[in-house]
Automatic annotation (TrEMBL):
Taxonomic source organism: Sulfitobacter faviae
Protein's UniProt keywords contain Ubl conjugation: no
Protein name: Glycosyltransferase
Domain of life: Bacteria
Enzyme class: transferase
Amino acid sequence: MSFERWKDTAIIIPARNEAERIGDCLTALAPQCNDRVHVILVVNNTDDETAKIAKAAAGRPGIDLTVLDLTFPPGMGVGAARRKGCAVALEQMPHLRQILTTDADCRVSPDWVARSIHHLQRFDALCGRVTLNPEEAACLAQQDPMFEAHEMAYRRLVLTLYARHAPNCADLHDSHGEAPGASLGFTRDAYEAVGGFAPIPCGEDRAIIRDLRAAGRRVHHADDVWVEASCRLVGRAAGGMADTLRNRLSGAGYLADDCLPDAGCLLEKLRRGGLGCWPVQVPEAERIPVDELPAHIALLRGFLDKSAACETAAPLALEAADLPPRENFPARPAKASEPLAAGVVELS
């Protein structure tokens, strides 16, 4: 295959059994795909007519589309699909400057492409927002508003902590802080610098943004770049949005988002000299039950209120008095102690 040489923007879309939604996804993109944009749809491990429907769309005016129909081995999935689409763009588009990605069950906002390219003139990576399809959102009316409020409150506190004390995370202040594969963008240089998407079944979106921050790249969480995602409760990737929505409808005892570590773990990391970069990926066994969030909110809010006067201080500049005593941390499973980083003096 050979793409027109002047195209500089690739849009990568993984799709698995998306025959019902791929038409709406491509219809939303088509008016935005001018002569600099090429769309690569990576249909993977699919047994419906996703590829057939997409190839029919590729034959109509308005969208320059390549459809890859692939099968990945077990243990690979959406991460491998995004990575493959990006690899094809890098190989076939010699003037490629920016890479955007969304999902096949999403409808991008009317100026999604233009706004994404605009932000990538100033930043290395762009994280948009995900809203829910209003035609489908009624199915979520039964979720407990108290648990949702607690999760949102704790998320704001965690973002504030990272904005103040984590490396290359100051931009998180007052941002949505999301890093969804449904709305990401990268400059070519930044994408290649961190080795691209990891070929993993889930979490490849947060992983690449975390890697970019760790590499010192500029990440921007934009409120004016957004997509509408489906509210389906049976998803294509384990641990994806469908699982999250289904868990929230299950009642008490579901687990908070896996980017939200418990407060004691966060403050212990801060005590030892480093939070690492946002976004976090919390192992399943360490996720917080949502009905336990109030204790974590109280602990983290108390620390942030107390340390507000030294908001710009680096973690190693914190005094012992700024951190609550360990006995105030919410209980969590005991673990082997981690060695201190070289040159770090533990606060006690």
